[in-house]
Each structure stands twice: as C-alpha cells, then as structure tokens.
C-alpha cells in the first residue's frame, strides 16, 4: 500500500524551493516547463502528451480526476488555480 503525504507550503516557500522564474537559466525566461510524469495525489501516469494533466503556476501536477473531484480546482500546496497543462509531443 502506497501512502502519499502532501505538505502544505506557503507560495513563498514553494517559489524558493524551485527557484525564481529564469533562475535556472541565468535570468532567461525561455526555460521549458517541467513535465512531471505523475499525479502528485494519486500517482496516475501523466505522460507529456496527456490532456488530463493539470498544473498550478508552480507546476504542481495533478490528474483531471483529482483536480475536479477532490481538489475543487485549487492546488493543495500553494492555493493556486489548477489549469490544463500544455502537451508536449516530441
């Protein structure tokens, strides 16, 4: 049995943990989005081409089912809106 533990962080903590926009690229803002491979809540696979992946502005990633049925469209980590993640096919 797998147990998923979600730890709520303030948006400032979240930004500091992942870095400010462009920080990893020396200030450039052309860095690619991190395409996390699974829902952070239930663990379902979310490949880069999936249209069921939802993200917040910090790129926390959840499946459409968890987003709509359990989270009410709100990220449990930062409180931000969850929207459909763009797909990547290539």
Largest sheet: 3 strands, antiparallel
H and E order: HEEHE
- Taking the alpha carbons of the first and last residues, their distance comes to 34 Å
User: How many β-strands, per DSSP?
Assistant: 3
Extract low-pLDDT stretches: 1-5, 10-24
Helical content stands at 10-25%
| Proportion of beta-strand residues | 5-15%
- CATH fold-level assignment: Herpes Virus-1
How does the helix and strand content classify structurally?
Answer: alpha+beta
Q: What is the average per-residue confidence, as pLDDT, rounded to a whole number?
A: 80
User: Strand arrangement, largest sheet?
Assistant: 2-1-3
Number of helices: 2
- Quick one: CATH class? Alpha Beta
The CATH architecture designation is 2-Layer Sandwich
In quaternary terms, these chains amount to single chain
Radius of gyration: 13 Å
Shape call = globular
Q: Tell me the count of domains.
A: 1
Can you walk me through this structure?
- InterPro entries: DUF1272.
- The chain has 90 residues and is of the alpha+beta class.
- It has one domain (8-17, 34-90): Herpes Virus-1 (2-Layer Sandwich).
- 16% of the residues lie in helices and 9% in strands.
- The protein has two helices and three strands.
- The chain has helices at residues 11-18, 64-69, and strands spanning 53-55, 61-63, 83-84.
- A three-stranded antiparallel beta sheet has the order 2-1-3.
- β1 (53-55) and β2 (61-63) form a beta hairpin.
- The chain is globular, with a radius of gyration of 13 Å.
- The model is unreliable at 1-5 and 10-24 (pLDDT under 50).
